[in-house]
């Protein structure tokens, strides 16, 4: 670890997390407003993204904006902020996180980031749970989404020639331990089902409520499943078409 960097070295992976005034400020901000489990998750995601950029051919051959990748990965779960005043009452957590990160960079970088880089940051965070879209975006967006997915899959990441070996995985997780991350994922996403249900019906978050209930322990599960059925997008779309027939010839 260099004197100016808050991040440890990762010699097995042969990567170094970039450190500059903006990245260090974002790291401090993330620590102030999220849990240790989330901070460590984000640092693992940064590390996996950097590893994939170096060793996964489609990314290794691209001219990737590393600062944008690091900031996006580092701040991608600001939508889970423990400082609730940062969050909306009506937006998906990914959108909250993207908005928070964009505002942070606009304020902290003092106009040094142009509109394109700001959009990369926003897209990478907003789309990080939607790989079917993210994979068709810019390399930075792809790298962030893959790095985040890699923290859940590790050496089992379904990539051809997956560069995440067991040894590299162990080094990254050893540097940034999970410290209860699995429980936090369940409790956070079930909490979103409970507190902001309208933001979860059309995405993967609702599945946590269906599996773990609204309290993360099975409570309210059956009622939640029924609520999801009532708000199923297929029913809403087809019901809308049926209702519109009254105004059609």
Automatic annotation (TrEMBL):
Q: Name one Pfam family in it.
A: HD
**In this protein, which residues make up the domain named HD?**
39-135
Gene3D superfamilies per the record? Hypothetical protein af1432 (1.10.3210.10)
InterPro entries recorded for this chain?
Answer: HD/PDEase_dom, HD_domain
Q: Which residues cross the membrane?
A: none
Please give the name of this protein. HD domain-containing protein
Origin organism of this chain? Exophiala viscosa
């Amino acid at each position: 670890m260099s004197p100016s960097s808050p991040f440890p070295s990762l010699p097995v992976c042969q990567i170094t997390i970039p450190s500059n005034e903006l990245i260090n400020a974002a790291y401090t901000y993330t620590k102030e407003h999220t849990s240790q489990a989330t901070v460590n998750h984000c640092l693992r995601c940064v590390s996996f993204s950097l590893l994939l950029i170096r060793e996964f051919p489609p990314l290794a051959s691209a001219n990737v904006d590393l600062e944008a990748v690091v900031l996006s990965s580092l701040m991608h779960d600001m939508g889970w902020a423990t400082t609730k005043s940062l969050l909306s009452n009506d937006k998906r957590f990914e959108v909250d996180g993207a908005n928070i990160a964009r505002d942070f960079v606009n304020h902290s970088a003092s106009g040094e980031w142009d509109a394109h880089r700001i959009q990369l940051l926003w897209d990478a965070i907003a789309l990080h749970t939607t790989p079917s879209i993210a994979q068709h975006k810019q390399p930075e967006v792809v790298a962030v989404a893959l790095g985040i997915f890699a923290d859940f899959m590790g050496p089992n990441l379904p990539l051809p020639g997956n560069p995440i070996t067991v040894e590299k995985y162990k080094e990254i997780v050893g540097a940034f331990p999970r410290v209860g991350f699995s429980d936090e994922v369940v409790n956070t996403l079930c909490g979103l089902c409970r507190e902001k249900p309208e933001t979860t019906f059309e995405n993967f978050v609702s599945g946590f409520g269906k599996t773990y209930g609204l309290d993360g322990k099975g409570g309210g599960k059956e009622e939640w499943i029924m609520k999801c059925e009532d708000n199923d997008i297929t029913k809403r779309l087809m019901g809308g078409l049926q209702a519109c027939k009254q105004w059609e010839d």
